[in-house]
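=== Structure Prediction Worksheet ===
Name of assembly: unnamed complex
Input type: mixed (protein and possibly other molecules)
Chain count: three
Listed entries:
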Amino acid sequence: MVNVVITPTVANLLKERGITEANVKEVVDYGESTKDKAVLPAEKMNWAVKRIGAATFAVQYKDSGELTTAFSYKVALKAITDFVPEDKTDWVYAKTNEQMYRVRADMEYIGVVRAASAWGCTSSPTAFIDEFMAIKTIAIAQMLLEKKKGA
Amino acid sequence: MDRAEILKGLADATVAGDAEKTAGLANEALRTGIDAYDAIMGGCAEGMKVVSNKYETGEMYVPEILLSAEAMYAAIDILKPHLKVEKAAAQAKVVIGVVEGDIHDIGKNLVRIMLDASGFKIFDLGRDVPIKDMAAKAATEGAQVVAISTLMTTTMPNMKRVVDELKALGIKDKVKVLIGGAPTSEEFAKSIGADAWAKDATAAIKVAEKLAGR
Amino acid sequence: MSAPSEVFFPDINTDWHGHAAKRFAGPFVGVPYDRVDVDPILLPHAAIISGYTLREFYERPKLGLASVVYANEFYDLLPVTHWFYSNVWLRELGCKLEFKDTLPPVVTGDRPVKNPEDADKLRIPDVSEVAKGPTFSGFVEGYDFVKQYFPNWFVPIHFTFCLTAMAAELVGVDKFMLWTLKQPKICHKLMETVMETSTNGAIALANKYGFCMMVIGGVLANSDLLPPAKVKEFGMDYHVRHVKKAFKGGGGPQLWYHLCGNHARDYMIWKDEFFSPFTVMHIGYMGKESFPVTEAKKVYGNMATIMSSVDTKLMYRGTPKEVYEVSKKMILEGKDSPRGFIHGCACEAPAYTPPTNIYAMVKAAREWGKY
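=== Predicted Assembly ===
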């Protein structure tokens, strides 16, 4: 198992984003034990994702256990519907060593299912949504859905 | 190379977009005494017919047409000065341009290329052509056809004004008007007194030939 | 301080707007409201029915946007304030734009790229430079005006007409087409330049307003001009990079892909576009005919909100009855599309469209598009 290391800077980030140390450890433990995670071997980086309660948590950390970032989103993965293998990323799916590429994933929130672009591969049941997508695009989409469904 | 080989070579090099080869073969044609008109019509024009068919079937697209046109013009520039006077005079004349107010000319350029390849004498006035200029050119040159294009609905009324101007000049009975462009239609052509409408560059050749009585 | 002259209509009917806003949100939140929404993409038509000119629509962004607001209430359309023209972000790269009486603004004069080696001399303006440029200023003039006087309507929209067409304008369309065969590296350099410039425009807009809807066209990259492989190479691939980078910089989340013109041979490749949860996919034509709603639903219905395409020739030259019958058919075919449906025109409603033809679209939606 990996010992999670949280620097003060990252601790502030977690606080801003409402993510607890317990959330982070649960995600990292899940990624390490199942290998359902993405890795960047050259940079010794890891990316694990887990649904905890009503949110999906994503954590990126070094092989040493040091956290580089963590973010969350309320949408839940419903299905990966399409693959675009030409649009590759350097991330590799750890369980099968398959290089990942862009996928289209159906994400569900408050009964509404919509598509979003993420990273994945045919052997990965997990869709890895980029941080910028999660904290900007998906966050605004969630807010608009909440607003409009309630309007 | 014999005559058939040269003409086939011109056609094939036109299709392939090989300007160096068409120029070489044009010179070879002249050197071996092939009539310049025959070299254009039996060589380059045949090549452009193939190009036109391939465009219709989706085997070739605009970049390839333009490349083939480059190759064709490389040969025509060499052959044209050697055209016999009577052959030149016999060419049906077409005034072509994008109607006043519009500057989108890629469709018009494709039609011009195809008409050139088919042996018409072309007076290309470019784009945003003032109504009076288009009609006046037709009158001055004794054109048989005026071909007008537009991409914008806002300038479609100007097509009718060209027809009206030809009538005002008293030459509408001698000049056929062919229109084209995305927002136009056969119905619109009829409504403005134009003689024909062509849905694309390939169709424009057949229509222009019919209008010119060829 | 009294309102500017562009506020020339009585107050917007807030009841109407409330319903229109819910109707517009319906497709995106999976909760259809009362009926199918209608968007004929009004641009200078809105100014013309308000007594202004096509040129004024483009030269005066506040007037243009105000007239779109009023026209949308007048016709009972979706409440989106769109104002744009095709040659955006090009003045920033050295093009000269001219405003015309019969056309949207056009690039005139010498192009910044005459020879292949000129492509390397183009300088991509960064975000702060784009934010001081003429394209951005025009949009911000309009959007600040909407934010102040029509706050319920306010959605800042970043517009990329068509990256392929924009790159082509730098050198001339015919030349660019030829260079895709003879100088492909230069074409890619030009594509990269317009893509980065437009992306910086989106980031600048997102920096100013917190987010921006993105509208991206596939116009020159279409089946009449380029083969599918080149539509992808010189079109879609750059869309993907543009949207990703713009989203990273705060753009989105709304995306509207407007594939203008004929996409008969390439419409499937756009499935590899970058998708956000709020994406509209709109394809104009299949050959010479309006793109079939049934095909749009089959291919894109599970990925995005789809939009129908009444032929703009019919909008301009057809009768209201003809527009109504076509609209009825499209609405019946599209209203149950899984991710939502908007009834629209293949491209912007022509400037001089008879108003009764716009009304015919709405009448059909009211009568056949109920949920």
